Amino acid sequence: MKNLQLIKSDNLSELLELLKKEERKYNIIAGGTDVMVLLKEFLIDPQCLYDVSGLSELKEILVDNDSIEIGSAVTMSDIISDSEVSRYAPVLVSALKEVGSPLIRNRATLGGNVGNSSPAGDSIPALFVLNARVNIVSEGNERSVKIEDFILGPRRNVLEKGEIIKSFVIDKMGTDERSFFLKAGSRNALAISKANLAFRFMLKDNLVKSMNLSFGSVGPVVIKSTMIPQLFIGKKPDPGLIDKSCSLVSEEIKPIDDFRSTAKYRVKVLENLLRKCLDEFC
Amino acid sequence: MSKKFKVVKTSVEKVDGYSLVAGRGVFVDDIDLPGMLQIKMLTSPHAHAVIKSINIKKAEALEGVHTIMTHENVPRIPHTTAGQGFPEPSPYDTYTFRRKVRFVGDRVAAVVAETEEIAEEAMKLIEVEYDVLPAVFDPKDAIKEGAPIIHDEEDCYIPIPVAYEPERNLCAHVDVEAGDFDKAYAESDVQVDREYYSHYAQHCPMEPHICIGYPDENDRLVLRVSTQVPFHSRRITAQCTGIPIRKIRVIKPRIGGGFGTKQEVLLEDVVAFAVMRTGRPVRWALTRKEEFISSRTRHPQYVNIKIGANKDGKINAMEMKVLSNTGAYGSHALTVMSNCGSKVLPLYRCKNIRFWGDTAYTNMPVAGAYRGYGATQAAFAMECVISEVAQKIGMDTVEFRKMNHIKSGEGSPIFEKLGEGKEGVPQTIGSCGLAECIEWGEKEIEWGKKNPPSEPHKRRGKGVAILMQGSSVPEIDMGSAFIKMNEDGSFNLLMGATDLGTGSDTVLSQIAAEVLGTTEKFIIPYSSDTDFTPFDVGAYASSTTYLTGSAVLKTAEKVKEQIFGVAQNMGPFKDCSVDEMYLEDAQVKCKTCDKTISFSDICNFAMYAKDQFQIAACESHITHKSPPPFTAHFVEVEVDTMTGKVDLLKYVAPVDCGTPINPILADGQTQGAVVNGISFALTEEYFFNEKGVMLNPDFNNYKILSTVDMPELKTTLIDTYEETGPFGAKSVSEISINGALPAIANAIYDAVGVRINNGPFTPEKVYMAMKELKK
Amino acid sequence: MKINVKVNGKKYERDVRENMTLLRFIREEIGLTGTKEGCGVGECGACTVILNGKTVNSCIVLAVEADGAVIETIEGEAKNGKMSKLQNSFHEHHAVQCGFCTPGMVLSAKTLLKENPKPSEHEIKEALEGNFCRCTGYQQIIEAIQDASGQMKK
Question: Which tens digit of pLDDT belongs to each residue from B223-259?
Fold first, then answer.
């Protein structure tokens, strides 16, 4: 690994100011679980690193009436062990438990997982169904984008020079809502998903009140299902509807063949994972 | 059968246990030498190419670069990296640097620099022009006419008289037959003919290969190597570099696992050249990625089995045809392939047997020794086909095995016909606890009982595989030991045998202690250092306990005689005959009188009193048999029909290893081997692109089992006594890696009715096979 | 860049290059070689150390990121030359073969038992899932931890 400068600050505005002026190639580093690997493998070649792990503004979890704000530099372990996140966003906790190992989760952050924008990042499908918004800050500016608009492609996102992810705002799920994160992989620990799905669902008077569904690891970016929720909303789920929804999976996702899996298997297995969720709830 | 022992057959503490849990074990990399330089290897991006030109000028000019080695400035000496006895049964087809690269990851240039970072920078400055040649990746294609020839150089050869035809990519060939296979097969009531493929896999010791070299004060070359074979390492390093053996010392400190990949002399030649050129200490450590790509793998193999049997369940005819892929170089190419036959075919009683084995060169990563050594690959095919034959006859697959497996007192024509690079050694089976293993396993897994699945979309099934291995290579391998006595009654036990984590230092200490009437705490084992310890072939072929253990036993017996002799010269025992003396509680005792002399007094007398001499002995041992350990593996699986995922619910592995010298250590060997086998069967897999580039050289994508993947695992040791082994011991380390592939495959068939003939049994493969079946 | 750390209770101040990993810092600057490198990219756990109370892969943490931190390594586990209960248990259960993964295993187990003194078998497995061992097959390691937490099934 080559030598490079690390710039650290415990003051957000100071760091943003430095970042704005920065003319060299840089990367943001928080826990380093992705950045360090990319550096060691020569997959990125920055001249300096900006360490955000010391910024207290990025390390808070705030809960209000209908949303939760999670700082981008909160570690995954801290999110998992947060009782309110566990209660109000269990699907995120399930997804984060699938990331790496305890050793990784003790360092890895949500900001890193999303900022890295890997198609196999397990947290992202969960953020999709929680209608996450990404709060982005830069010197003198703040903006917020929907998670599905944030990620542009594999390892590409809307962050511009000088910008960092400050936090994520996610829905606080109601007590009458249910959710699931399911993953198909060969083994448990450290497995990178071959395909996964996040599912959030509410029934009222036997009718589907709401449904959010997203698929991960099946295309260049996480896919938010539109057709399947449309099919169900306002209806009473029955076996016919379930069959029909499963047959829509192949229309919604465009997986590719790679060494981890074939497109054909990914479609089939997601159909089955979806069926499993629906059978459970309906 | 059961004999009384004091130290042997007890689970004494591991002699290096405390230092290792304290983090004080000193591995190769745990020393820091002043001025130590670092090596980085530039490797080939092409699977097959000739280096047209190589320009190192810019790289050499970089500050901090000391020297760069390429095929242009390093002597070209054909050798093999296989750390085997001399002359090796592997072709001399390797050169420290080569003009032609033969796989993606092959050596091109070594940079020796002040730091790894500088070496990495320098690597980028080396300009290499390649003439890319057509490559061949599958062994079936490689031996076809017109395939690109991988070893077309004139100076490669194999140093023993066996088939070697590099001009058609045939690296090794063996065929033997007993009886008349064709006739017996044709006349059989039931015939099964199947091809299985076992895949690429890597050993993944937690410590990657590493070597540190430095000149000592007398200008001898010292190599600290993570090796299983220090003496072969010394010999092959001398061969490659021209440094005389007397000027090389190889030290094996604590080793972080080997499993066969450290039976290779992989780094030493380059480190030796670097030390010669710079006069400085030099370190070369492989990264995990390099470990996957450029070290060694298991030989992938196509194994075709034909079995003919009668309706009454008797096996008439067996044929095994192996096509092994050795990759770009022929390390262990012949012997791994031969072992497919010699460690699997004798398991079943049969008069008409044919074995046919070919090993092909391809432009793929280089295979080598890997725990199981061919038996893993062949047992997969054999044990699946055996089950299929039983099912075709309509017999229970366990009953069929019980009826046909070899028993004590029986032999196999294969033992005699198939050896390692030559004919084998005839032998009849001595100890055999296979029947007891099967019985124990059947009970533990509740064979014949079908359990309901945990969820409606899941299916359960059970599978079995029975196995044998060997214990050392008979009449080829040699081990020796040296024991000397100290004034406090302790003994130094010096061995060339290499403990690489297996616990052999402990086991061999126990054997010495048992003979010498003391405890293992009074034995100080040291392994291994070519300057101080006597020769041993090293830790491979399941040999250490059986082979070196016997050498230790003989040496200790010699020391015992000397102790008796000294005792007789000492006052109290003047009138006692040596026949009446025995050793117990670190004392010489006499059966007829109740006098005793302490070891301490014995040693002090020998050293300081009269006719002074050092009580010490060195003995060697070769074996004339390779008694097989036996095991029966049983597994219960649950297959998710929605995803194809195979969950292991329970895995059962009783093992007959003769007398377990240290039962907990023996059990640990079984457990480690089983889990490695399961990992190989379920998840481990190399992925390549169409250019022969490995796509997943990291633990995120090459998945080895971790704690959360563990099934319920039941192991036990079945008590037998092998008359030819030290205190009745046979080997234990390799055998249990061979069971998971066939046992799980058989269980998957039992659960969902699909026979999967190639590993690993990934969810996708199982799912797609189930879909195929439905059609 | 100058950093201050406390390793096993002892304070160190060192000037380090920014690209130095915490692993190399501990091994080369502090001279504690019990922490091992097995993969270099945070996938095997041989380099596990406890950083401010949490286990991390020290091969993918920069030393400069650990400025001001409290670090525990395997060398800090034995106190006054006496092995800890966990270390004794690993030794007694032969949970050690080659010993290369052992320092990391012990530290992950230590952190688990601190947070959860009576973990279930499943919890033990989850806590150790980032620490690979190729020798033992894990069973004797799990038993060692069960015993150290006073829950050995006899």
Answer: 999 999 999 999 999 999 999 999 999 999 999 999 9
Chains in touch with B (≥3 Cβ pairs < 8 A): A, C
B interface mutation test: which of A186, A273, A278 has the most B CBs within 10 A? A186
**Shortest CB distance from A188 goes to which of B121, B699, B709?**
B709
Do B244 and B269 reside in the same domain of the chain? yes
Phi, psi at B294, each rounded to 5°: -110, -5
Q: What distances in angstroms separate CA C120 from CA A94, C59, C109, C127, C150, one per listed residue?
A: 19, 29, 12, 11, 11
Choose, out of B13, B14, B20, B21, the residue to mutate when testing the contact with C (most C CBs < 10 Å).
B21
Which tops the pLDDT comparison, A239 or B272? B272
In a domain, B9, yes or no: no
* Same domain (yes/no): B312, B413: yes
Cβ–Cβ < 8 Å for B78, B92 = yes
Q: Please give the single-letter amino acid code of residue A172.
A: K
Structure tokens at A213: 């569904």
Whether A4 has its CB under 8 Å from any CB of chain B: the answer is: no
**B 168-197 → A contacts, CB under 8 A:** none
- Topology (CATH) of A177-281: Enolase-like; domain 1 (3.30.390)
User: In terms of Cα–Cα distance, which of B685, A103, B705 is closest to C141?
Assistant: B705
- Distance of alpha carbon B284 from alpha carbon B274, whole angstroms: 10
Domain boundaries, chain C: 2-75, 85-148
Name the pLDDT band for A189 (thresholds 50, 70, 90): very low
One-character DSSP codes across B14-48 = PTTHHHHHTT---BGGG---TT-EEEEEEE-SSSS
Q: Are residues B444 and B319 in the same domain?
A: yes
- Pair (B262, B312) in one structural domain: no
Average pLDDT, integer, range A15-20 = 96
CATH of the domain at B546: 3.30.365.10
Contact state of A191 with B763 under an 8 Å Cβ cutoff:
no
Domain ranges of chain A: 5-171, 177-281
Whether residues B644 and B565 share a domain: the answer is no
Contact state of A100 with C48 under an 8 Å Cβ cutoff: no
Residue B170 lies in a domain: no
**A184·B708 Cβ contact <8 A:** no
Specify the pLDDT at position A190.
42
**Region C68-95 average pLDDT:** 96
Q: A120: pLDDT confidence band, cut at 50, 70 and 90? A: low
Average pLDDT rounded to a whole number, residues A77-82: 97
The highest-level CATH class for domain C85-148 is mainly alpha
| List of chain B residues whose C-beta atoms are within 8 Å of the C-beta of residue C139 | 671, 710, 713
- C59 contacts on B by Cβ (under 8 Å): none
What is the CATH T-level fold of the domain C2-75, as seen in this structure? Ubiquitin-like (UB roll) (3.10.20)
- Inter-chain residue contact B696 with A187, CB threshold 8 Å: no
Whole-structure pTM value: 0.96
Q: How many CB atoms lie within 10 A of CB B131?
A: 12
CB contact under 8 A, A186 and B703: yes
* pLDDT tens-digit series, residues B286-342: 999 999 999 999 999 999 999 999 999 999 999 999 999 999 999 999 999 999 999
Pairing, β A195-204 against β B587-590 = unpaired
What is the nearest CA distance from B162 to chain C, expressed in angstroms? 36
Of B17, B287, B699, the CB nearest to C132: B699
How far apart (Å, rounded) are the C-alpha atoms in residues B335 and B343?
11
Q: Do B675 and C90 touch (CB under 8 A)?
A: no
The range of the structural domain enclosing residue B75 comes to 31-133+209-285
Chain A residue numbers touching B707 (CB-CB < 8 A): 189
Say what the pLDDT of residue C153 is: 65
Q: Which CATH number fits domain A5-171: 3.40.640.10, 2.60.40.770, 3.60.40.10, 3.30.465.10?
A: 3.30.465.10
pLDDT attached to residue B29: 98
- What span, in angstroms and rounded, lies between the C-alpha atoms of B135 and B513? 56
B710 with C138: Cβ contact below 8 A: yes
Query: Is the residue at B171 inside a domain?
Result: no
